[in-house]
Amino acid sequence: MTYLLNEDFRKVLEYISDKKEFTEKEVRRELKIREDEIRKLLYILEENGVIYPLNIINNNGKFDFRWGNRVPNKKEFFNLIFNKELDKIKKEIEDTPKTIYYCENCNLGYTFEESYENDFKCRECGTILKEKENFRIIELENIENNILLLKKNYIPEKRVSKARGKR
Length: 167
Ligand SMILES: [Zn+2]
Prior knowledge:
The protein is of the alpha+beta class. It folds into 2 domains: 3-69, Arc Repressor Mutant, subunit A (Orthogonal Bundle); 74-156, no CATH class. It has helices at 7-16, 24-31, 35-47, 74-95, 112-117, 135-154, and strands at residues 21-23, 51-59, 62-69, 99-103, 108-110, 130-133. The radius of gyration is 22 Å and the shape is elongated. Zinc ion (ZN) is lined by residues 103, 105-106, 108, 122, 124-125, 127. It comes from Nanobdella aerobiophila. Residues 7-142 form the Transcription initiation factor IIE subunit alpha N-terminal domain. This is Transcription factor E.
């Protein structure tokens, strides 16, 4: 659902976070993660405007791809990608109806509009629909909490100033 919850992806993020440039081969060699996995993540980051393609390296017919990082600072890098993802989830929570109308007979959920149009009866079997909390909201809130927890690992809140020297 969100790429930040993928452990392999986070290894790659950690690796590239403070680099101005990197190549796919280098990431693969350093982290032993599959090429298609790496590429999947790099495309997500490109879409988010965090990295950009630089050039193609031809090593005797074996191609490698060099990427540039727009935010080559670990703290800023993670701040940016975590906040982008949190904004996306918040927006999705706002756009998702809080309640659904549910048929226990067919295990089908309807939006308010859909059930209103059909007198709050199931379109399949005619059973009176029950109002229920939309499970999707709970799911999204769980994801949001997980991202917030993760974010703390990467961007510790600055209360303790002596932690600064630690690496
Ligand atoms: Zn039904």
